[in-house]
Design brief:
By secondary structure, the chain is an all-alpha fold. Helix content is 71%, strand content 0%.
Length: 145
Amino acid sequence: MKKSISSFERQLCDIQGRLFELSAKQGYASKEFITTFMNSETAGNLDRDYDRLQWLGEEYILANLADEAHLNKGEVFSNEVLFWAGYTYRYWHFITGESSKAIITQANADIMNESYFGFHTLDVAMAVMDLKELYRQKNDLNKHF
């Protein structure tokens, strides 16, 4: 696992955080938006080492996603939760190399919303490791029942 990320990668984390915030401004249901985005071709393109989407900003990325998938209006999470979740998911990809699809299976929208207050003040890499540990513990518990 990578210990640090480049300034370019940090900028992409920031763009994804702002993308998640923008979804709330558009009124998209946060839980559904996060799940749809993380499983989308759009997120897959952002997982690449280079893709033109990385340079186009959150408005264009949201438009691209809206062309790819139907996004419904609904209950939105707070801007703070959304920014943190978007930023953390992208950071997670950079330090582990895991795809967006693999990441969302470990920490879904509900987990991110519930974990925000305890994890948002942690170093992002530490928050990722703690989220991965929560997932591992949950899986271990499920194996026993």
